[in-house]
Amino acid sequence: MNVFKMAWRNVLRNRRRSVVTIAAMAFALFVELLYAGLIPGYLRAMEEDITQLEIGDVQIHAEGYRETPSIYTAIPDPDAVTAKLDALEGYPSAARLLGGGLAASGEFSAGIMLRAVDVERDLKVCKVAGKVAKGAWLDPANPKGVVVGKHLARTLAVEPGSEVLLLSQATDGSMANDLYEVVGVLGSVAEATDRATIYMVDDAFRDLMVMPTGAHQIVVSRPRTASAAEAGDAVAAAVGEDLEVKNWKQLMPIIAQMLDSVNGIIYILYFIIYVAVGILVLNAMLMAVFERIKEFGVLKAIGAGPLRVLFVIFIEAAIQTMTAMAIGFAAALPGMWWLSNKGIDFGNVGGMNVMGVSMRKIWYGIYEPSVLAGPVIMLVVIVGMAVLYPAIKAAWISPVEAMRHR
Amino acid sequence: MSNTPVIELKGVTKVYQQGKIEVQALRGLDLTINKGEFTAICGPSGSGKSTALNLIGALDDATSGTVKLEGNDLSTLGRKKRSHIRRDRIGFVFQAYNLMPVLSAYENAESVLALQGVPLAERKAKVMPLLKEVGLEGMEGRRPDELSGGQQQRVAIARAIASSPAVVLADEPTANVDSATAEKLLDIMEKLNKEHGVTFVFSTHDPRVMKRARRVVMLVDGRVDADQHKESGEDAQGVPQ
Q: Which residue, among B46, B41, B82, B84, has the nearest Cα to B61 in the 3D structure?
């Protein structure tokens, strides 16, 4: 007895019911596929915005700097550290100098955070240069040029071409002050950057703050194949124990936790949608099995074992599930293409801050095999669970009882 | 007909629950059926004939007593072994035909052989002549809903005997067909019995079956009330009738 042929004919036997069951499965898969790609797209974009714009995937500081930031607590030989990281494939790094001070322009002034970068190396680690809304990014050939955060520029009433006076205390105790030219104004990056950050060239910072050597922070980017934790471990192993190495999730634990919980919400929603489908499949399979219970009784009477009966029912469910998968994928493909290439335009909502991180204007979906596997596996598991009860009932029922069934 | 017993029932009782009521279907049934017999088990409704057939067919368990098929005590066998015995040693013909509606006449007839794992070519060589013998030549590809009741019962007979079982158990095989068809079905089964030595045991009310049967066992209240061997004109104990 060809079990596959029998199962296939049984699926075709009650076409309306099979069509409804397959349609429900296909629709659920269609929705889940689109949704499954959108959420990781959002999460990845958010993670990239957090890491690639400013903080990097991993940061290295001198011990104690993060607890009590001080211009004197510096990594003594940042070049040696970045040289070690250059030896690791896929871990570009850049040293930064950080300091606080005051900026003034005309009648306006504001407390600021100075962030000085090695322009060439920083471009390989962070994408903040791409966020310049007006003017241009830093140029090492113009050490007097600075780039100002969006809201800070408004506070100081500056724009590209304006002069800004920076005041601080140098490492030798002297008053650090100099005039700089605003060469660029950033768009929305992150709350702290927008309100109070001025980017400058590292050599200019060294001159201003009288700090010929050292750096306060080394920012490292990670390959996409490594998780944040793996990257942190790899960097820590490369640079040695006397420096503090933290991955971005350790640096921003609240945001990391929020992203993880969003990930959990995906699975809750998968579950809710599929439970509804599971109930429909269970109902359809219960009807399909119980209206044929007499036939299963006959099958068992003529010598078919319970496993064969179980197999027939599971093959029927598998045929319907695979058909639904083909339809669900075919229906979702154009949507997946659209979401991954064109994305959803949030218009004015784009650029809004979510927990201090600026949201992108366009939300793209990510459709990789690992993302698509989730909805498919969940569908198979839910259908399998829904079919299990009627299948077991049919497989282990006594032939006499089954043949008496009305 | 030989004197080799195929079926032996000794002191068989069967009690089952019908809702809250306990029903005693068999009350110490003793019955031996030999190879090659063409036996009808008769009796009024509730006399226990279908229950007896279910026990002989390893479809149900006796409450007490022994049921032996070719010497194997069915009550001592596990589910798997009983399933194999049903597949390999027993053929079933049911009142409602009970064919698989999604399978063709040929596929239904070969289903037991397929369950046994007999190769395709061998199945075909065995089943095609059988379908011809039961008068279904040219209808092999038809599904049950494209066949009349009598034709469906012929397919069921072909399915029952395809694997050369020790016994064919037929539960009211003529109940759902008209007289002419019933006679034809009985002709077929009688021919198979005479020419191939297939042992048939019927459970029936049908006088046509009782007339054709060479042995008629009358059950009343779960016990043998009369047992007549027509050829010898004696009952099972040798008492002239």
A: B82
